[in-house]
Amino acid sequence: MKIKMTAGSYVRSSEHLLEMKSGGGCVSLFGLPFFFAGLFMILVSTGVIPLSNGDDVPFWGMLIIACMGLIFSAVGGALVFARQWHTIDRRQMRLWISRGLMKPMRSSYYDLRDFEEVRIRYVKGDSDTADRYPLVLISTKGIPELELCTATSYGQARSQAILIGEFLGFGISDASTDNLQSLEGPAKPLQKTDLPPYPAREDFELKEGPDGLYLGLLPGRMHKARLLFGCLPLLFFLLFARGFVGILWSAGTPAVIRIGFLSFFGFFFILLPLLEMLRGRMRTGKSVQTLKISNSGLELNDRLAKKSLDLRWDQVFGVDLSSPETKLRSAADGQTGVDPTSIPRWIPKLVRYVGAGALIIKAADELHYIGSGLPEDQLVYLHAVISNALQDYRPALESEQPHVEHSPENT
User: Fold this and answer.
1) Are 384 and 405 in contact (CB under 8 A)?
2) What is the model's pLDDT at position 406?
3) CA distances (Å), 207 to each of 84, 204, 298, 310, in order?
4) Which DSSP state fits 54?
5) pLDDT of 291-329, one tens digit each?
6) Closest CA to 154 of 173, 131, 126, 125
7) How far apart are CA 190 and CA 388, in angstroms?
8) What is the pLDDT of residue 356?
């Protein structure tokens, strides 16, 4: 029952209708030549359109023309008839999906009475695709999710979810991060949270002054174990290279081979590791990520990724905490659909050693991750500090301002 749709936006066309159009337009015009060319080749291969030298064309030649005609007509038809109309009818409580060229030609519908909630999800992209934010309808009757549309930005997904949820009278939730959060009703002013205990070790620099709050995230420290593992390739090379030492320094070995081997050894096993260690030492004490919160908004700089971003307050929706322990707590509370009794006892002990958490700033363009890899206690402390700072410095200008979202463990 789950259907996938292209990026688009629903707009209110009448009192009881929400409509969204996708595909078609110039894409349909581009596909017309391919579609008609494919039909022409199919008619030629079947003999409906005779050729002047048709008797000279072998059977396998006509077969190739028929296959090319099928491919061209399929590609062209997909482009020509790719226009879709999505209509949400509040009176009938149905979602209508129509396909056609200029007007709808084929329609199907889904009953919306089986659903109760509109939810935002997050699908991370890769090198070829961008991040996506699907909007799905959730049912408590065991019915699979119904995907309404896919937004290309978090702000668009949030506004569309609120529009559809309020239009249908459904619940609205945000599951783009580990913590499921409700978006129902107007934003309410939240009280400051109490700061958790200060971390025993700090991999960050925190300052607050008249200009705002400054947070600098320091690079990871060089541990002795990491240094030992870095020397393992050199030790293995020396262990297996003992047999070549006598050959290299024998009288019959040319000087070119000797110099080439020593150059290769010195470059890959001595020079490159030393340069990497030197770069790590130079980064020590310098922030690799900085976040500044002031009355004008947020400034985020990532020195390693060479990215700088300025966000106005109307583009910031909140901050969330993502870590292996929060995921485990959500699963134990039954928020992820996983049976809590099926979680092995050794999982909570193992999760403590997995440093894959981060703080997530929810902005209008996308989700921005900071502090990736910090320990759990540091993430919890910084999450409380940033949440309080967002409340302190956000101007109270409009009633529909984005609200600061908190993780369940910090509220």
Assistant:
1) no
2) 44
3) 52, 10, 15, 19
4) G
5) 999 999 999 998 877 888 999 999 999 999 887 666 666
6) 131
7) 9
8) 64
In the predicted model, is pLDDT for residue 67 greater than 70? yes
267 exposed, middle or buried (CB, 10 Å; 0-12, 13-18, 19+)? exposed
> How far is the C-alpha of 131 from the C-alpha of 383, rounded, in Å?
24
Half-sphere exposure of 16 (CA within 13 A, CB side): 6
**What domains sit in the chain, N to C, each tagged with a CATH number?**
11-182 (no CATH), 204-220+287-410 (2.30.29), 224-283 (no CATH)
**Torsion angle of the four alpha carbons 39, 42, 46, 47, in this order, in degrees rounded to the nearest 10:** 60
Amino acid at residue number 225: A
pLDDT digits (tens, 9 = 90+) for 195-250: 888 888 888 888 888 889 999 888 755 555 556 666 666 676 667 666 666 666 77
User: Order of strands across the sheet with 367-370?
Assistant: 316-322, 358-363, 367-370
Cα–Cα distance for residue pair 331/352, rounded to 1 Å: 16
What is the longest distance spanned by two Cα atoms in the chain?
Answer: 95
Q: What is the pLDDT of residues 390-402, one digit of tens each?
A: 988 988 654 344 5
Cα separation, 162 vs 171, in Å, equals: 9
What's the half-sphere exposure (Cβ side, CA atoms, 13 Å) at 35? 14
The one-letter amino acid code at 147 reads E
b vs e for 47-72, b when ≥16 Cβ sit within 10 Å of the residue's Cβ?
Answer: eeeeeeeeeeeeeeebeebeeebeeb
Q: Tokens standing for 272?
A: 């490159």
